[in-house]
TrEMBL record:
UniProt cross-references to InterPro entries, sorted A to Z: OPRT, Or_phspho_trans_dom, PRTase-like, PRTase_dom
GO molecular function terms attached to this record: orotate phosphoribosyltransferase activity
Gene3D superfamilies xref list: 3.40.50.2020
Assigned keywords, A-Z: Glycosyltransferase, Magnesium, Pyrimidine biosynthesis, Transferase
UniProt pathway: Pyrimidine metabolism; UMP biosynthesis via de novo pathway; UMP from orotate: step 1/2
Enzyme Commission number(s): 2.4.2.10
Protein name: Orotate phosphoribosyltransferase
Cited PANTHER family: OROTATE PHOSPHORIBOSYLTRANSFERASE (PTHR19278), URIDINE 5'-MONOPHOSPHATE SYNTHASE (PTHR19278:SF9)
Gene name for this UniProt entry: pyrE
Cofactor(s) the record lists: Mg(2+)
Amino acid sequence: MTDRDDLLKLVLDLAVVRGQVTLSSGQLADWYVDLRRLTLHHAGAPLVGRVLLDLVADWDFDAVGGLTLGADPVATAMLHAAAARGTGRKLDAFVVRKSDKAHGLQRRVEGPDVAGRRVLAVEDTSTTGGSVLTAVEALREAGAEVVGVAVIVDRGAEKAVRAAGLSYRSAFSLADLGQ
């Protein structure tokens, strides 16, 4: 089995929850993908990092992150996976706040500075693209060049992200989850 196969099994075993829920987009769904059950899991996080690095291996970027909270464990998994590969690749992670910070350094994008850098915006799962596009806007305001968007599970955001002029990839689609 490949890392992608192993990750899909964990998504199905740990993260797919049946029952009506309200998504962050406000839409109602009969099932939910709670990927924090996966991205914060001892076996899931390393797989997330490796699978997403492989997914975007042909894209040139040196920092990864997105809107807190869904993107945070994805970005750190990728950071650790890049370091573990022993190729010398230096990949930083960053966190985009949902709103401006009113104290301290008042930064919306936390972590190593992204100004002038090529960055990848990530999310665990996306239905409308709203969260990741909010992150992209903040990254551009901070002076970053966003090379694309990558998610673990796409619930329908691809069209909106591509309409915003961004490249988009997902490790899994709804069809992969049997939906």
